[in-house]
Specification:
4 helices; rod-shaped
Length: about 120
């Protein structure tokens, strides 16, 4: 069994699995966080149409909406971060599966080599 831990395939596989788990967990946690933020943002009350505000002119609309248009990237930034953390989660899943596959292949290979050499464990 100690020889198994010395094989590079097993060590790399375990390392990938551990790092993949960390990425998967971080991606899952942050994805939930940003999905909650975006859900809360999408459920914000929407005011009525412009028809309700008789005193607004096109010039006044431009003046009032200019700061909102400059800072309107908050929603798109949150969507970008959500996409990034989904990618981190998916990458973590792939790293975990690759690492576990490598570790299992190393264990099977080691068992096969011991059996063909005549060593019974």
């Amino acid at each position: 069994m100690t020889r198994l831990f010395l094989t590079p395939w097993f060590g790399v596989g375990l390392t990938l699995a551990v790092l993949g788990f960390g990425n998967w967990y971080t991606g899952l946690d942050k994805t939930r966080e940003y999905e909650g933020l975006l859900k809360a943002h999408s459920q914000a009350p929407v005011s009525g149409g412009i028809e309700e505000f008789h005193a607004l002119t096109p010039r006044m609309n431009r003046t009032l909406l200019r700061p909102l248009q400059r800072s309107g990237g908050g929603f798109s930034k949150a969507m970008g971060k959500l996409d990034f953390y989904r990618l981190v989660r998916t990458g973590g899943e792939m790293m975990m599966l690759t690492g576990l596959f490598m570790a299992v292949v190393a264990a099977i290979h080691m068992a096969y080599r011991r059996r063909s050499a005549g060593v019974i464990t």
